[in-house]
Amino acid sequence: MFRHELAKAETADGTWAFYIGYEEDGCLYLLTPDQYATYAAELDRLFDDGDPEDRATRTQILGNFQRVHTDNANRLTIPEEHAEIAGLSGKIDLVTGDRRSEIWHSDALRRRRADGRQPALDRLADRRGKKTATRSLTTGSAGEGS
Fold first, then answer.
1. Domain 4-105 CATH (choose: 1.10.10.60, 3.40.1550.20, 1.10.1660.10, 3.40.50.2000)
2. Handedness of CA 108, 110, 115, 120 (dihedral sign)
3. Does pTM surpass 0.90?
């Protein structure tokens, strides 16, 4: 049912524990406890605890995350505040990845994918070209057929 990373969220009583929160991209982040720890550590690296503005920013971002559990039927209730912020109603989609899972309103995800498809493919092609050129320079190859 769930990707391997999400399976790590299963608790001893058979329910699942997650952290749910958001940033600015219009979806909710669904993190396992391990993913949340990694996310919080990343924010620790980005924001200096000794700087009041950095500390306030980190607190604000982490403060919007809530620990949630599934019920015994493995259903997850999304906190109302989070559902409102992400514009969730009707059909929603769960997009899973290695670093996090995302909960999207289906129409918003469809629009985002349509709008971002070509720019993403262009950027990927550009990055691949740069990596090929870098590899060719470091190996001494002229780049033909490599």
1. 3.40.1550.20
2. positive
3. no
